[in-house]
Amino acid sequence: MSLWGGRFKEKASLQFKKFNDSLPVDYRMAVQDIVGSISWARALNSVNVLTDQEVAKLTQALEELKLSVENNPEQILEADSEDIHSWVEIQLIQKTGDLGKKLHTGRSRNDQVATDLKLWCKEKGNEIYVALVNLQQAMLDLAERERNTVLPGYTHLQRAQPVTFGHWCLAYVEMFNRDIGRLKDALYRADTSPLGSGALAGTAYPIDREDLAHHLGFRTATLNSLDAVSDRDHVIELLSTASISMIHLSRFAEDLIFYNSGEAGFVEMSDLVSSGSSLMPQKKNPDACELIRGKSGRVTGSLTAMLMTMKALPLAYNKDMQEDKEGLFDGLDTWQECMEMATLVAEGLTVNRKRTLAAAQQGYANATELADYLVSKDIPFREAHHIVGEVVLDAIDKGVPLEDLTLTQLQQFSPKIDKDVYQHLSIESTLDKRESLGGTSRQQVEKALADVQTGQKTLLNSQVVGAPGKARISSALKQVQQRLNATKAAVTSVRRARMSDSAVIFELVNEWAAKGEILPRSQDNIIHDIQNFVVAEIGGKVVGCASLYIYEKSLAEIRSIVVEEEFQRQGQGIALVQYLLEFAHQMELKDIIVLTYIPTYFDKLGFDTIDKSILADNIIEDSEPSPLKEPNSEVAMKYTLGQV
After folding, report:
1. Phi, psi angles (nearest 5°) of residue 377
2. Is residue 441 left, alpha or beta, with left meaning phi > 0 and alpha meaning psi from -120 to 50?
3. Which of the residues 2, 68, 85, 156 is marked catalytic?
4. How far apart are CA 10 and CA 31, in angstroms?
5. Coil, strand, or helix at residue 193?
6. Cα–Cα dist 402/372, whole Å
7. Half-sphere exposure in the Cβ direction for 191 (13 Å, CA)
8. Beta-carbon contacts of residue 85 (< 8 Å; ≥ 6 apart)
């Protein structure tokens, strides 16, 4: 059964039907189509097209169909329907009779498919978001484990300067963090509902499209019906984000393939991600990484195909757009699968520290240090560069590293070289000198690692900074962990508060204020301060909140942290705090305080207890003691944000 036969005298040929039908691909949007249909039934009820009883009957039938599809999505492929929209409608008619035929009133398959696809993209995007966060965490864990492991750094695939393996890990954390940013941006722009746009000119019924959008979980409704039904920017953006991320994954894979080779021998991959040879029993092949590298072309191919499909299409909907889903589904599935595999690779990686150190000591990687040493002796860098080049050439002829040349031999090239030169030529010195932002200084590395390992300063979403080096990596690790945890908070559905949240925040805050746990706040105060609130959502419902109150340019207080009782112990409170800590970090605040009756909770989040008496008078005055608590039970705690 098709949805468009009345105008035709003859049936379509079987050849055309096979060519035209999209059910084998778009059946994956069955749940989204059903969810959209439930919302549309509600919208038709609001304009008196459907009665309350009809909506109830349709909703029940659609919910039953949704459950059936979730349990067995493959059943759809047994049907002969043209697409998922006709399949759902046919099933609904079978369940409800002629009532099912009323549901399509005022709706077109054009706005229907556009809505289904955006709903699917939002859901898939959230899964990918989690996969990216997990991959970042795996790389951060590996960076912590190998923070002091010396690794030769390369340019042009030639050994250049020593770095640390931890710093190499953090370079990819940076790349994946940019991928997260692009994904969030793409999902934000995709978060608009086309439903109610009709075929191209809008619906003839006075439906509140903003209310419809919110019921479907969209941020807002689209503003132009022509654009709404013909827009596939979200498909292109997601495939573009996937392609860039796959390039990052491919580089990651290529590095490890090289490091894993017999010629390098820097790492060994877990048996869980390796395969062998059918002929050569000694072989252990890095197939997981090779497949990741290979699949990057598959994803970028999907992007290219989509760009060419949309090129020069006139407004509004055209059947060409049916080609949007196959490449999108495959591209995003492949991206997610590769991230999950890369996470498994990182978790099982074994590093040969002796081999990496020996390699870093070869290739005259300390030549730049000798040049810098000469600069410290008032020799211009260009002249120092030339001198060191001659020294390297001589060392190559003698077959020795620079540090094995005698002082007499070195002084042949410059009389300014003295016996103190050798302390500058060691691997440790080479690493530890890089104390600038993004460098490799050991002191920075160890300090930051101590922060991460003790649980201190764990803003869940920070990033790695710049170049290699032990000391700097620790500071970078701290920032990466901060940023990563903030990302995890976002995954837990923590977001900035909106004005529409003010009434719920008021109820939450004052419910707990009545119990003496926090201070009460007026609705006017909450509205005035709404830009400093964040909320936690579960299933579209606000279940918790917290706010940041700024005292001065370097000091702020986290206040009003509450979560509904039935949703406690699910990580919402932690996510709220971590989100605010990252927010404070982005605002360049330094110290964050809390005044709390549960210090053990904040101790786990990296806060340190401080003497309450050292706080300024205005802070103490703002914090009125609860009449339901012991006067001395309130504890002051502080979190110092990582500054790099």
Report:
1. -100, 20
2. beta
3. 156
4. 33
5. strand
6. 14
7. 16
8. 3, 33, 109, 112, 113, 116
3-class secondary structure per residue, 329-379: HHHHHHHHHHHHHHHHHHHCCEECHHHHHHHHCCCCCCHHHHHHHHHCCCC
DSSP bridge partners of 562: 545
Nearest to 473 by CA among 450, 493, 444: 444
**pLDDT mean over 298-319:** 95
Find how far residue 378's CA is from the centre of its chain: 48
> What would the pLDDT profile of 72-123 be if each residue is shown by its tens digit?
999 999 999 999 999 999 999 999 999 999 999 999 999 999 999 999 999 9
Where does residue 530 rank: exposed (0-12), middle (13-18), buried (19+ CB within 10 A)? middle
Task: Supply the DSSP symbol for 285.
Answer: B
Please state, in angstroms and rounded to a whole number, the distance separating the CA atoms of residues 506 and 504.
5
Mean pLDDT of the chain: 86
- Are the beta carbons of 544 and 562 closer than 8 angstroms? yes
The DSSP secondary structure of 122-171, one letter per residue, reads: HHHHHHHHHHHHHHHHHHHHHHHHTTT-EEEEEETTEEEEEEEHHHHHHH
Q: Which residue has the tokens 């559905």?
A: 493
**What whole-number distance in Å separates Cα of residue 526 and Cα of residue 547?**
9
- Burial class of residue 382, CB neighbours in 10 A (0-12, 13-18, 19+): exposed
* 31-35, 44-48, 440-444: least confident range: 440-444
In the DSSP assignment, the letter for residue 418 is -
**Quick one: three-class SS letters along 76-92?**
HHHCCCCCHHHHHHHHH
Beta strands at 533-538 and 541-552: parallel, antiparallel or unpaired = antiparallel
pLDDT of residue 435: 58
Q: Are 99 and 58 in contact (CB under 8 A)?
A: yes
pTM of the model: 0.76
Q: What is the DSSP letter of 517?
A: S
Any alpha helices (H) in 23-108, and if so which ranges? 23-26, 30-46, 52-71, 84-96, 99-102
SS3 for 561-629 is EEECHHHCCCCHHHHHHHHHHHHHHHCCCCEEEEEECCHHHHHCCCCEEECHHHCCHHHHHHCCCCCCC
What does the pLDDT look like over 147-200, one tens digit per residue?
889 898 898 988 888 888 988 998 898 899 999 999 999 999 999 999 999 999
Do 593 and 557 touch, CB atoms closer than 8 A?
yes
Q: Is 277 labeled as catalytic in the residue annotation?
A: yes
Q: Percent helix, strand, coil in the chain (nearest 5)?
A: 60, 10, 30
Which residue has 């939450």 as its token pair? 508
Q: Which residue has the higher pLDDT, 15 or 339?
A: 339
Rounded CA gap, 374 and 188, in Å?
A: 53
Sign, CA torsion 482/483/486/492: negative
pLDDT band at 487 (very low <50, low <70, confident <90, very high): low
Report the distance separating Cα 268 and Cα 168, nearest Å. Answer: 16
pLDDT of the residue at 439: 57
- Give CA 335 to chain center in angstroms: 13
Mean pLDDT, to the nearest integer, of 190-219? 95
Out of 46, 85, 234, 277, pick the active-site residue.
277
Cis peptide before 384 (omega within 30 of 0): no
Handedness of CA 477, 481, 483, 487 (dihedral sign): positive
